[in-house]
Amino acid sequence: MKTLYIDTSSDYLYSGIVINDKLVSSIKKKYEKDLSKEALPQVIELFNKANIIPKDLDKIIVVNGPGSFTGIRIGITIAKTIAWALNINITPISGLTAMAISCNTNTYKMPLIDARRGYVYGAIYDKDNNEVIEDSHINLQNLLNKSKDLDNVTVITNNDIDINLKKENYNPDILKIVNYFEKSDGVNPHLVNPIYLKKTEAEEKAGL
Predict the structure, then answer these.
(1) Residues 153-165 pLDDT 10s
(2) Spatial separation of the C-alpha atoms in residues 185 and 182, rounded to whole Å
(3) Per DSSP, which regions of 9-161 are E strands?
(4) N or C, which end of the chain is more exposed by having fewer CB within 10 Å?
(5) Which pTM does this prediction carry?
């Protein structure tokens, strides 16, 4: 089984190729504004390092949100282009779920992505990565209020979020994420769409 994983939902490119339960090539690098021009060449380089070509793939897993509007579209476009050419399905996943899966702790897990102005993209998972509070674009204090009855919560984030809880930096365990979704059949590439959670500024102004 040869699987490509892509996450461009933030300023970082997290991507890797897993072959027969082994991570053979990967990248975890912050690009910020350069992500749009660097993502595809870096993914191509992953194939070179893994000594395979795209048509060798059996599976593609892509993070389709939440996070950066532009970033999410970059990863989905790459995944859809490859999947369409190969006539294979895509497994779209939440970036917050990926964050929870990567955190090796026996506590509740609160993955957070800064959405500015006191808001976050956040959720809460239990130690077995079951969703306790679903993915939301939510005021941080409201999320904390919802979690107040939970004992021992670990925050996972790469953002500078001021919060009085134990925090861990997000370091994606690509092999663990891929294995977690190993049995997913995925969906037709045309059915994969971004999950933004937050309305665009135009939608908010229009009251949509």
Answers:
(1) 999 999 999 899 9
(2) 8
(3) 12-19, 22-30, 59-63, 90-93, 108-116, 119-125, 131-139, 153-157
(4) C
(5) 0.93
